[in-house]
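Write out this protein's structure.
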Amino acid sequence: MFNLITLKVLSLFSWIWAFEVVFNMLKEFFYIEVVWYSEIDKNAIKIYEKNFPWVPNLWDVKKINTSKLKDFDILVWWSPCQDFSISWKRKWLKWERWSLFFEFLRILKDKKPKFFIFENVKWLISQNKWKDFQIILNELENAWYRVKYKVLNSKDFWLPQNRERVFIIGQRKDLWTFDLEIPTTNWSNNVILKDVIDNKFDEKYVKDIEIIKKLYSWKREDQRCEHEDKICHCLMNSWTWKWIVLNKDKEFVRRFNARKLNLEELNDVKARQLTPQEYERIQWFPTWFTSWVSEPQRYKQIGNSISINVLYEICKSLFTYIKDNKKLYTRNNETNLERYKKGFNAKKEKYKNKVLSKLEEGAFSEETNELINKEYNNFLETI
């Protein structure tokens, strides 16, 4: 049965593993054992291995042999977002990269963990007029999972960053009713850039007038300058896209971003790029977390990661939900995992449907009920 002492986790497309940081912050709920992670980016692997050297890497997700994996409780997954990002062409079904979703689905179907957590850019929902997102939901439903999803913004979780991401949380259908509430905020936001940026910084981050004029000519919204009395736009994976104007008011910065200034007005402007440590702070990582790689890679690794505060609240909510629902393990129509596996894996569709319908009806034999009760009593002794 479900072990409240240890939850085992498999991480796909782990990057620098925001999940691992959060799990270490939630030890009062469970002991979380990350049994494997999967990542192929050499710099992300270097950061991961420096911070979590005891976790083995499965490398390329397409080459994972699920028959050799032991069972685990939670599958966490977030994959390359370019296919859904507003900055890219957003052609999911035509992009080879998004065959990775079906690799995730393959592992989910083969191993059938109790829960999964999935994160991506918010454009995932609106891609192709909701059609692609509906495909994802249908595939997860067919994999026998109940799902909940919500778009969350980092600025609502005490971080000075406008970063919207969609989170999907799934629970296997043979468990109890899925009434998890995904949090929409934890604090009213009163944090601005000034609260997290450094007053002292290396002069190498201050740029000359020619670079400022080039910055002024850029058209993309996410490449605009920031003012220290506001929150910043979503962090990107390059330092060239995040600058702070040092000696001008917010109205000047607004006109700068809208390209409504004369070039003469730029002559006395000072601007600097955010430092890697500030990138980490804005995402709520420790300021040494990515220090094992080059500066350009630090920006990339943090800019592509998940905001820690947001993920913390999601995992905290899920763990609270699991703990509060431990009494529901006595419900016979929701606990027969072996019968569920047998039904799901049956080669004959007719037999599979018959078994799954029995699961829904709670039609178990007396012997099965006795086994469930015995297993539940053993479970109670562990908590």
